[in-house]
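so the lab meeting is tmrw and i was supposed to have these ready like two days ago... anyway. pasting both below. for each one the top line is the aa sequence and the line under it is the C-alpha cells. i havent really looked at them closely yet so no promises
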Amino acid sequence: MATSPKSTQSVKNSSANSARIWLYSLLLTFQYGLQPLISRWFVRREVIVTTSVFTCEVAKVVFAVFFMAKEGTLKKLSQQWTLVDSLIASGLPAAIYALQNSLLQISYKNLDSLTFSMLNQTKLFFTAFFMYIILRQKQSIQQIGALLLLIIAAILLSIGEGSSKGSSGGEPDQTFFYGIIPVLVASVLSGLASSLCQWASQIKKHSPYLMTVEMSVVGCLCLLASTFKSPDGEAIRKHGFFYGWTPLTAIPVISNALGGILVGLVTSYAGGVRKGFVIVSALLVTALLQFIFEGKPPSLYCLVALPLVICSISIYQKYPFRVKKKEA
C-alpha cells in the first residue's frame, strides 16, 4: 500500500520538530549549567548590577527581533500587536522578572555554582504554589512528596553554606544574606511570573519571540525608572554605565540573553516535562564544569542534596495530577 504524500510530509514535520526540540533542550541545558560559572569568572564585583541586567534585556530584544525577521513573522506580528494586549500579557511578569534577574546577579557572586543551581530549583515549588493560587491547578500526592524533598534539599544547602565560607571567600553572614536569600526570593518571583505568563497565554496565544520582546522592553523601562532613586542609579551617574566592565563581561550577558530566548522556545515546543529534564541535566553540567575548570569537588551538603534535587524534580515531572474518572 503506497504512502500518501500528506502522511510522508507529516512524518517529516514531526521529525524536524523533534530535532528542533532536542537542539533547543541541549543548548539550554549547557547554558543553564555554564551561566553561574561564567558570571563569576567574567563579571567583576565593581560592575553595577543594573547595567548588566539592562544590557541583557536589550540583547534579548535584538536577538528576538532578528529571529522573528529570519522566520518571516516579524511583519505579521507587528501588525497584530496592540499595547493593551501587550501590557496584560507581559507588563507585570516583565517587572517581576527584571527584579528576579537583579537578585540572581547578586547571588551569582556570593554562592558556590552548584549550590546556586540547586537552590535555584526551588522555583518549581513556588511555581506549583502560584499555579494553584492563580490557575487552581492541583498537585498529585507524588508531586507534593517531590516538593517536600526539594525543600529538604534547600534546607541542607542553607545549613551548609551558612556554616562555611562561600566560594568567593566571603563571611557566612554575607553568603547567607547576599547569596542564599537573593536566590530564594528570586525563585519566589520566578514562580509568580511563570504563573502569570501561563494565565496570560490562556487568554491570547503569544509567539515566544514576541513575549520576549514585550517583557524585555517593559523590564528595561522598569530598570530605567529604578535608577532615579536606587544606589545603582547613583553609582551609574557617578562612575558611568559601563563602570567595572571588560570586553569579557559581554560573554555572560549575551549567554543569559540567549538563555532567556531558549526558555521560551523549549516551553513553547516541548512543554514543562522536557524543561524538567533540562533543569536536572543542568545541575550535572554545573557540577562537572566546576570540577573541571575550578578543581573544586562538591561539598558534603551538596553531595547529599544533589540526589534529593534530582529525585524531586524527576518525580514531579513524571507523576502529574490526574482527575479520577467517575464510575458509571
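ok protien two:
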Amino acid sequence: MERVNHSVVSEFILLGLSKSQNLQILFFLGFSVVYAGIVLGNLLILVTVTFDSRLHTPMYFLLINLSCMDMILASSATPKMIVDFLRKRKTISWWGCYSQMFFMHLLGGSEMMLLVAMAIDRYVAICKPLHYTSIMNPRVLGGLLLSSYTVGFVHSSSQMAFMLNLPFCGPNVVDSFFCDLPLVIKLACKDTYMLQLLVIADSGLLSLVCFLLLLVSYTVIIHSVRHRAASGSAKAFSTLSAHITVVTLSFAPCVFIYVWPFSRYSVDKILSVFYTIFTPLLNPIIYTLRNQEVKAAIKKIRTQHINSESRVLTITP
C-alpha cells in the first residue's frame, strides 16, 4: 500500500510530557506501574467473568468487551510513551503515527457506542426485568457489539481518509506524547481550516449523539428506580453509579479536547493522559469496587485457588 500524497516527512518528533530528565525518569516509573495496573486490572475482570458461571450474563459480556477495548486503547500509545521517557530523541514513523491515530479513534468511537449498549442493557434489566432474558438474547448482544465496532471503524476511517491526502513537508514536531490528530493536522503544508472543522464535526457529532442517548437512557432508568422499593432501588443505584461514573470519565476529557482541539494550553496534555491512560485503569477499579457480584466472584476464585494449593501441598510428600 503506497501513500497517495507527496510528503517529504517520513517521521514525526514527539515532545512528550516534559523535557526534564528527572521528571522523565519519574514518569517512566510511574506510568510503568499504571500500565501494569491497566493490563492486570482488565485481565482480572476477563478471568473473573470467564470462570464464574454466575457472571455469564449480557451485562458482563459487554463488560469484558469494554475491558478488551481499554487494554488495546491504552496499549496503542502507553508502551511507546514509557519507552520514550528513556530516549533523548522521541520519533515515530509516518505510518506508525497514522496507525496510532487510526486505532485510537477506532477504539474510542467503539467504546462510546459500547457504553450506549451497556446503558440499553441496564434499561432493559431495570425497567423490563421479566423480559430481560428474551430481549437481551445472544443475537441482540452480537448486534450491539457489531454496531459498536462498525461505528468506531466508520468514524476512524472517515478521520484517517483526510490524512492520506495531506502533504507534510515540515515542521514535523508534535507537542504531545502520541500522535494526536488535531496536532498532526496543523503540521500539514496547506490550509487545513476546513479539515479542522470536519474533524471537530465528526468527533463532536459522535460524542453528542452517544451522550444524548446515554442521558435519555439513564434519566428514564433513574426515574423508574425512584418508584421502586428501597431494597431493589439500592441495588439498582449501586450498579447505575458505576456505569454513570465510567461514562463521565470517558466523555468529560473528550469534551475539552475536541471543543478546543487547537489550543496550546498544557491542559490538553493532561486530559489526553487521563483519557488514554487513567480511564482504562479506573474502569476495572470502579466495576470491581462498586459491584458486589464481581467482588464475590473474585473472592470465590481466590478461595478456590488457595484451597487447590493447600490440597497440592497436603498430597505432596
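from a quick look at the 2nd one: The beta strands are 11-14, 91-93, 173-174. The two ends are 62 Å apart (CA to CA). will dig more after coffe
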